[in-house]
Design a protein that fits this description.
The protein is an alpha/beta fold and 333 residues long. The protein contains 13 helices and ten strands. The strands form two sheets. It has an eight-stranded mixed β-sheet, sandwiched between helices. Helix 3 packs across helix 9 and helix 5 packs parallel to helix 7. It is globular and about 65 Å long.
Length: 333
């Protein structure tokens, strides 16, 4: 009994795994950023949620009949109507007087393109739903086709790089700003490379009454053609180069950013991915496109003020040093 009384209950609880609405044993590809992002979102949201999930990779690899990897109420919707289905669930719960939070999950195809009309309507009507976009920058489930989220100059099966092409000709849609133009209470971006930041944003969004939006950069080893063990490194470099700004917007105003402590050139991000391999040589077109992508990253840094004035526990280096159970004040810089 004396030995049992000496157990540090706080340390024991801190060491126990958190609740996760997504169980292991699903059929995602090795190194899948989307599966990691979905697990982190459900851990942060807790068990009192209902999820509407668009057609796509996440739906396919988690629900191969007759099995499911979900431990929370979950419904499969179409590519186009995830936000509409979530809106209906939210309205029914409100009628019943229940406070269960509704979340809508979709990839970039179900957010930027096919599902945007329903998303816009959900926000405009003010439904109390958290819409999460797992952004892997292409239609990966159907063969790595380009989407409205695919970056400029990336090579896909429908925008292949070749003798007469340097990949996708168009720019990635700035969906965060498009969503923010609806003046919703909270919209943000996050990356799987920074779980602590992602956790905080999910909990912030869950606590808001009204529509909220979270775009999570979720690298796809298959579509981006990077090594499966490089997922976190790629996701981190996207942020450290300024190519994917991590920001928060409330009612149309930028209220927070993740500062970049050690800024990296865009080539450090590109060289890890086969979809940008055609941009790494000395060909004049490759040089021009690299400069174009660097300019896009530079513009993000300028617009959002992403270069921190001094080291911080919330910048791209400091936030990765704050471990579970450690105080922010005591974190090493």
């Amino acid at each position: 009994m004396a030995e049992a009384a000496a157990i540090d209950l706080h340390a024991l609880r801190a060491a126990q795994p958190r609740f996760s609405g997504l169980e292991a044993g699903h059929r995602a590809c090795q190194g899948c950023g989307q599966s990691l992002a979905a697990r982190l979102v459900t851990e942060a949201a807790g068990p009192d949620v209902i999820v509407a999930n668009a057609t796509g990779c996440l739906e396919v690899f988690t629900t191969s009949w007759p099995q499911t990897a979900w431990r929370i109420p979950w419904i499969h919707s179409l590519f186009a109507n995830t936000a509409a289905v979530a809106s209906g669930i939210e309205a029914a719960l409100k009628k019943q007087g229940r406070a269960t939070k509704v979340m809508a999950f979709a990839g970039d195809g179900g957010t930027f393109d096919i599902g945007f009309q329903a998303l816009s309507g959900m926000i405009e009507r003010g439904h109390n739903v958290l819409f999460v976009c797992f952004d892997n920058e292409g239609y990966m489930n159907t063969g790595v086709q380009r989407s409205g989220s695919t970056p400029h100059a990336a090579s896909t099966t429908t925008s292949p790089a070749g003798v007469h092409s340097t990949g996708k000709r168009h720019l990635k849609k700035d969906v965060l700003q498009i969503v923010a133009a609806h003046h919703l209470p909270y919209a943000a971006t996050a990356s799987v490379a920074f779980p602590r930041d992602l956790y905080a944003k999910v909990r912030r969004a869950i606590g808001v009454e009204g529509p909220t939006f979270l775009q999570i950069l979720s690298p796809c080893p298959l579509g981006w053609r990077h090594d499966s063990e490089a997922t976190i490194e790629v996701a981190r470099l996207a942020v450290e180069t300024g190519f994917f700004p991590v920001v928060e917007i409330e009612r149309g105003y930028v209220t927070g950013v993740m500062p970049i402590r050690q800024r990296k050139p865009i080539v450090e991000y590109l060289k890890l991915q086969g979809r940008f391999r055609h941009l790494l040589g000395d060909d004049p077109h490759a040089v021009q496109e690299r400069a174009h992508l660097q300019a896009l990253a530079d513009r993000n840094i300028e617009v959002y003020g992403l270069l921190g004035e001094r080291p911080s526990v919330t910048d791209t280096t400091g936030i990765a040093l704050v471990h579970r159970g450690a105080s922010v004040e005591g974190a090493a810089l």
